[in-house]
Amino acid sequence: MRIGLIGLGRIGAFHATTLAGLEHVEELVVTDPVSAAVDAVIGRIGKARAVADPAALLADGLDGVVIAAATAAHADLIRAAVAQGVPALCEKPIAGTLADALAVEAAVAESDVPVQIGYPRRFDPAFVAARDAVRSGALGRITTVRSTTLDPAPPPAAYLAGSGGVFRDCSVHDFDAVRWVTGQEVVEVYATGAVDPDAPHEMYAAHGDHSTVSALLTLSDGTIGVVSNTRTNGRGYDVRLEVHGVKDAVAAGLDEGLPLRSTQPGISWPSGPAHEFFMDRLAEAFRIEMGVFTQVAAGEVDNPCTVADAMGTTWTAEAATLSAAEHRPVTIEEVRAASGA
């Protein structure tokens, strides 16, 4: 297969390595406006070839394209791929604004070209096992789901300025994991946030953003979801999910790299070293995700995360953003009605 990759920043460069490692990917066609990023990928990946821009890439007769460009470019690039008939995997979120996400949803609905949205926890073996436990009934009725994403350090201020805020950029992974594992939709959100007093103004406060947030989610069957996020977890990259039922409880992410130190005397677990970032904690999930995408592009398997599916996570992020800003519970029905959807 010949796969395209648009965007060679932090996540794009990581995807380049993952895609190149798939045996059935014969050529990787890449593009990025930063020539140094292109040169770095071409220099270390023998099967990679560069083209001038996304238009040239999409016209290159590819079997599929991975979109890892900046969030603001997602909507246009998805529509361009669909117009060209090229199956696409686009990193979350669907688009930079709700209006653009709705426009993408409408455009994709009128086409049979598959568009997969990138939520790698759906492919993490531990998260898959947690979902299987829920779906099998082994846990009984689910009472509480806890999902955590704690980043070790914030990304650059310029990235945060265009991210859409922590709920749209970071918390969405947890919102999606809660929806996917339980099979339920979020109906109401109550969110709050705090700002690191030591962070420069342009990092968070200037954009009405937060460095640490929590959200309570009410799911369609009455289950309560608890989401916790921060940009500054000094011990490492912490991604976990707990599912508590009336019969049993399970957790994903409790491995030896868990960046958490027990204060119980005599306990040496986890032994470490702590996970540093998504590149080590979710490496296997990304590899599986990219492999599945090539199967989606080839028409061999169903799309595991459609735009329509991912819109459930988008609505949750919009409700959380409004809830934190106005200090009140917000229903998904409210934000849908306000958008005219």
From TrEMBL:
* KW Oxidoreductase (keyword) present: yes
Q: Which domain of life is it from?
A: Bacteria
Q: Provide the alphabetized UniProt keywords.
A: NAD, Oxidoreductase
Q: Which SUPFAM superfamilies match?
A: Glyceraldehyde-3-phosphate dehydrogenase-like, C-terminal domain (SSF55347), NAD(P)-binding Rossmann-fold domains (SSF51735)
Segments forming domain Gfo/Idh/MocA-like oxidoreductase N-terminal:
1-119
Record-given protein name: Dehydrogenase
> InterPro entries per the record?
Gfo/Idh/MocA-like_OxRdtase_N (IPR000683), GFO_IDH_MocA-like_dom (IPR055170), NAD(P)-bd_dom_sf (IPR036291)
Q: Which GO terms describe its molecular function?
A: nucleotide binding; oxidoreductase activity
Instruction: Enumerate the spans annotated as GFO/IDH/MocA-like oxidoreductase domain.
Output: 127-247
Say which family it is in. Belongs to the Gfo/Idh/MocA family.
Sorted alphabetically, which Pfam families does this protein's record hold? GFO_IDH_MocA, GFO_IDH_MocA_C3
Q: Does the keyword Ligase apply?
A: no
Gene source species: Janibacter limosus
Print the organism lineage: Bacteria, Bacillati, Actinomycetota, Actinomycetes, Micrococcales
